[in-house]
C-alpha cells in the first residue's frame, strides 16, 4: 500500500518536473544564442489570460516581435489566471528563479506588486505597461493617457446616440460595461467617457454596469440586454472575454458596440462601429528592444497620449468607412485633431 503511494508520488513528481522542463523548453523555442553569452531572457506575466483581452494580446504580440528581432533573446509567456490574489505569488516565483533578465507585465495593479517583489529581489528588472510607478530603479512603467482614449469613445458614442447611425434611438443613453471597478476605471475612463458624450449633447446619460470578472460572456450578454431595455443604443465594452456577450446581444437587437485598446471591427462588422486604440503593442515592442540592448532607463514612469501617437481612434478600418456615415466620421476627425493640438490633462490615480 505504502510503496504504491510512494511510487505514485514519485511518478507525479517526475511527471511535473518533466512538464515544467517541457514548458521551459517551449518558452525558449525562440532562443538564439549567438555565442557571445547567454541570451537575454524575458518572462511575460499575463495577469489573467491572453485570449479575449485586447490589452494582453497586444502585450504578448509586442514582446514577441522584439524577441524575434533581437539577436539573442528568449521569451516565456506565463498566464497568471483570474485569481488576482495569486499574482504576487506568481511574480515572486518568476523573480525567485533568478533566470529572467526582465519580467514584463501589464495592468494598473501591477506596479505595486512589482515594487513589493523588488524589495526582496532588487536585481530583478520589471517593465510594466498600462501602469505607473516612479522612482524604483528596478521598474520601468509605460502608461497611456486613458482620459483622452475614453473621451474619444465617449464623443463617438454621443454622435451615435444623438442620431448618427441608422439604428440610433430617441433615448439619449449610452452604456459602459467594465470587467471590474478599479481606480483607472472609476476616476478616469468612466468620467471621460461621459464627458466626451456630453460634449455632443449635455443631456446624454450614462448607464454604467460592472461584470465582476473578465471572462463571463453569458452574464455580459444579460447586462447588455438590460442596458438596451433602458434605451441604450451604444455600449462601450471593456470586459475582456465578456466583450463577446455584448457583441452577441447588440447583434440580436440592432444596437452598437464600441471597442477599447485594439481595433475590434472584425469581431462584429456593422455591430462594432468604433475603436479607440492604444499602441501598447508598439510600446511593448520598443521598450523590450531597448531593455535587450541595455538602453532602457529604469526608475521612470512615462505617459503617452494622442499627441505622442500612442492613443488614437481607428478611422482607417474598412468597416468604419462602410458602416459609419461620412458626417459622423468627419465630426470625429475634428475632435482627433483638437486633441493633437491640445492634449487633455491626465491625473493618474494613485500615482506614487
Ligand atoms: N482588461 C482586460 O481586457 N482583461 C483583463 O483580464 C483585465 N484584468 C484586469 C485586472 C485588474 C486588477 C485591473 C486593475 C485591470 C484589468 N484590466 C483587464 C483592465 C486593463 O488594465 C485596462 O484598464 C483596460 O484594458 C482598458 O485599457
Description:
By secondary structure, the protein is an alpha/beta fold. The protein is built from 11 helices and 12 strands. The protein is 45% helix and 19% strand. The strands form 2 sheets. The protein has a 6-stranded parallel β-sheet, with helices on both faces. A 6-stranded mixed β-sheet has the order 7-6-8-9-10-12, with helices on both faces. The radius of gyration is 22 Å and the shape is elongated. The site of riboflavin (RBF) has 17 residues, from loops.
Strand content: 15-25%
- Report the uncertain regions: 1-34
Rg, Å, rounded: 22 Å
Overall helicity: 40-55%
Number of strands: 12
* Structural class category: alpha/beta
The molecules bound to the chains, other than polymers, are: riboflavin
Identify the CATH class of the largest domain.
Answer: Alpha Beta
Tally of individual domains: 2
Mean pLDDT: 92
**Shape designation:** elongated
Task: List its traits.
single chain; 2 domains; Rossmann fold; disordered N terminus; six-stranded parallel beta sheet; binds riboflavin; alpha/beta; six-stranded mixed beta sheet; about 350 residues
In short:
This protein is α/β, with parallel strands linked by helices. The chain is built from eleven helices and twelve strands.
Amino acid at each position: 500500500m505504502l510503496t504504491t503511494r510512494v511510487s505514485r508520488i514519485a511518478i507525479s513528481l517526475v511527471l511535473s518536473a518533466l512538464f515544467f522542463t517541457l514548458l521551459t523548453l517551449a518558452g525558449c523555442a525562440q532562443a538564439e544564442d549567438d555565442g557571445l553569452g547567454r541570451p537575454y531572457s524575458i518572462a511575460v506575466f499575463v495577469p489573467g489570460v491572453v485570449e479575449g483581452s485586447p490589452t494582453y494580446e497586444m502585450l504578448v504580440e509586442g514582446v514577441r516581435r522584439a524577441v524575434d528581432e533581437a539577436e539573442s533573446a528568449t521569451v516565456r509567456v506565463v498566464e497568471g489566471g483570474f485569481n488576482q490574489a495569486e499574482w504576487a505569488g506568481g511574480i515572486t516565483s518568476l523573480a525567485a528563479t533568478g533566470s529572467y533578465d526582465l519580467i514584463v507585465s501589464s495592468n494598473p495593479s501591477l506596479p505595486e506588486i512589482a515594487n513589493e517583489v523588488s524589495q526582496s529581489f532588487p536585481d530583478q528588472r520589471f517593465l510594466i505597461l498600462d501602469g505607473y510607478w516612479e522612482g524604483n530603479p528596478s521598474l520601468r512603467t509605460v502608461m497611456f493617457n486613458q482620459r483622452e482614449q475614453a473621451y474619444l469613445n465617449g464623443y463617438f458614442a454621443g454622435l451615435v446616440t444623438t442620431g448618427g447611425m441608422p439604428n440610433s434611438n430617441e433615448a439619449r443613453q449610452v452604456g459602459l460595461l467594465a470587467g471590474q471597478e478599479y481606480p483607472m476605471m472609476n476616476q478616469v475612463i468612466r468620467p471621460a467617457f461621459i464627458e466626451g458624450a456630453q460634449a455632443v449633447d449635455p443631456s446624454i446619460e450614462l448607464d454604467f454596469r460592472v461584470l465582476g470578472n473578465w471572462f463571463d460572456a453569458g452574464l455580459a450578454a444579460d447586462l447588455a440586454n438590460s442596458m438596451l431595455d433602458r434605451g441604450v443604443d451604444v455600449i462601450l465594452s471593456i470586459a475582456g472575454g465578456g466583450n463577446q456577450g455584448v457583441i452577441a446581444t447588440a447583434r440580436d437587437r440592432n444596437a452598437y458596440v464600441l471597442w477599447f485598446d485594439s481595433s475590434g471591427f472584425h469581431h462584429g462588422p456593422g455591430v462594432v462601429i468604433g475603436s479607440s486604440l492604444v499602441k501598447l503593442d508598439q510600446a511593448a515592442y520598443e521598450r523590450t528592444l531597448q531593455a535587450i540592448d541595455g538602453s532602457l532607463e529604469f526608475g521612470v514612469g512615462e505617459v503617452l497620449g494622442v499627441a505622442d501617437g500612442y492613443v488614437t481612434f481607428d478611422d482607417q478600418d474598412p468597416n468604419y468607412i462602410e458602416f459609419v456615415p461620412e458626417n459622423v466620421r468627419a465630426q470625429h476627425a475634428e475632435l482627433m485633431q483638437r486633441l493633437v493640438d491640445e492634449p487633455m490633462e491626465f491625473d493618474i490615480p494613485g500615482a506614487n
